[in-house]
Design goal:
elongated; 4 helices; three-stranded parallel beta sheet; alpha/beta
């Protein structure tokens, strides 16, 4: 699609743990036109993250941000 319509861009919404699990895919997403990723960063308090059963600690949010930015994709926390 991107080869045919290079002016198109897209975004996606995903979980922090999926950003990290699939870290090898983000450069390809960026090349295809992905500009940003929306992910739920509700809190940076590990106790609250555990209570909410988020499946990741605070440090994973920072790592996910680094993974995306290294690929040229910005994070849009919500």
């Amino acid at each position: 699609m991107h080869d045919r319509y290079p002016h198109l861009s897209f975004d996606c919404t995903t979980k922090v743990e999926l950003i990290l699990r699939h870290r090898d895919l983000w450069a390809e997403f960026a090349e295809a036109g992905c500009l940003f990723v929306v992910s739920a960063f509700e809190t940076t308090n590990d106790a609250i993250l555990e209570t909410l059963d988020k499946g990741h600690p605070r440090v994973d949010m920072a790592e996910a941000t680094e993974v995306l930015r290294a690929s040229g994709i910005e994070v849009r926390p919500r």
